[in-house]
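Before our next group meeting I need something from you. Please put the record directly below this note.
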Amino acid sequence: MPEEKVKSLLTHEVDPRNAEGTIDLDSIDSVTAADQEKRPNSFAVITVGRVFNLVAESPAAMHQWIGALSPKKYTLGDIDILTSCQHKGWLVKEGKIRRRRFFVLTETNQIQYFRTEDTRQPVAGSIPLNCLCAVDLYDDDEVKETGLYTFRLHSRKTTYYLTAKTADEAQEWIVSIQYVSQFKPHQMYCTCSFLVFCQLVKQTFIINEAEVDKPGVLSCWQTLACMCCTFVPERAIKRYLTMHLKKTIERFPDTEMGRFATFCDMNLSRTRKRDVVPSRDEIIACLGRRDLKAVVYCYGGGACNIELNTATTAGEVVKKLSLGLQIGSGNNRFALFEEYAGNFRVIDDRVVLADVLAKFEIEMKEIMKKGQNMLDKKRLFFKIFCYIHPERIMYDSIEATFMFEQLADDIAMNRLPLSHEVMLKLGALRMQVLDGDHETGSFLKDIDEVYPLPVITARARSHQDQLVSGDLHETYYQKTLKAKNIGTLSKKFKLPEIGDKERAEAAVQVEMQKIRVDTTEYWKRLRGVSTSMAQQKYLEMIMEAPAFGFSFFEVEYNTPDQRFPKNLLFGVGARGVSFYRNGESSPMKFYPYEIITSFGAPVQNVYLLVVEAQNPISIETNEVVEIAKLMKAYISSISV
């Protein structure tokens, strides 16, 4: 080969799009040097699915590759381990001898402990966690006697006695372990998928060419295709199955059997572990050797048809949509959500979307059995998950339009506490964007699209209470009631109980009409303002609100404190968390992330915040997982 061509090959930049194959770093179990005389500088990469034998050009390069690909390559100071592990720190492990070890709670829900902070060193031991694990809090009497904060971790076979330096450290470990144990699924039985794979290999192995593409044989191939899309076989079975598929492709390339073998081989290399039984649509797609189709919705009535295989994750779809819409600036973090009847639940980036669609099918069947309303269906929704740097967004960009539509929906659905005056002005700007200048005779028919109906009801109730107490003179409100023959001024506003349905409905209608008139007045003042300028003013005004950038959850405050009512709004934002009274636009209390030492769910539906220099804060909510995901996402964005 000419020297110029060799030089060009050595200096040519590698294009990942032309790669012949990939190795998922998360699937690497270990990387070791191979002692082979005929192949010097060779090393083996052992993954979940197979073993890769590779050869480096020199001993130094071999050791560099081993160090780079090793799953325990990161030290404590590297950002990778900070973002990958769930918790870490020094603890004293009691046994025959008390030993101080560095413990790491990994992403795989396993506790590993090392002799030093350098996680490249061999693991001294590990503690697997599952839903049967339990943690006992340290004994206060024992702490007074010994000064040691020792808690007990009960695993499947052994009880571990672990001692932390302070009470806060012990509490952090207890909360983290309980959180992992609570959401770790329990395997009640051993799977027999390897037996099914072996039987299907036997039934699809053809000796007599006359049996090629027979209906019975093709049925077995269809079953094998579904198995390859659903289960991840063990390494030995996978090697045996891959050999069978390769031989079938070579012997019968232009037959249905050969096409099924190609489809199986392609999916076998990318299939991930599944958590849900495949849906009917997925099985039909596998039988036809096609990708699964789905629809992703977004605000403004938009929808996007996507094709996904049985290994496509939510993160891959989010990345693809962000690139296509040119909204991957990093100012906001987008995610896929499960949406049903206006309620959203975020989907983790690592979740296989085929599992989500299968879960939709199961849950909708349960809803049908209960005879509930079937007008709303569960669907995939694409929207902003975290507001990282919203102030950096260009107001004429697609990302700004996403923000505008999402914030408008949050206001209409009462997910953003704002003052009455601000909501009136925002409603007027919203109408200017949607309908342009106000025309004579224009009427805000659907006021609940720009102003939250629960707030209207609350204001109507408040005005009714003032009338009952006699604090108001005859106003527009009483005149309207009189016109509707629901009460007379001669009764001196002695209104019936607030539960009177007819009077309560009339009060809501009166308040709705007043808000409609006030919003229209603000709308008239916007004549001549362009659509883009109205959207920019909308975003600028809402960014000045204290509640902007927070995601709110309805919670019950369990910590004894007379300053806090029982029912509150708990907000999670980019700089910290806050508590709001219902109906107020300013926070009662704000806690930055710098003073929050730990957070988690010690028991089901209870969320615990450990804050510096004060007692732990306990709140009760059924959205514990959503709060934890959001806080972890914001904290990880700060660390980056």
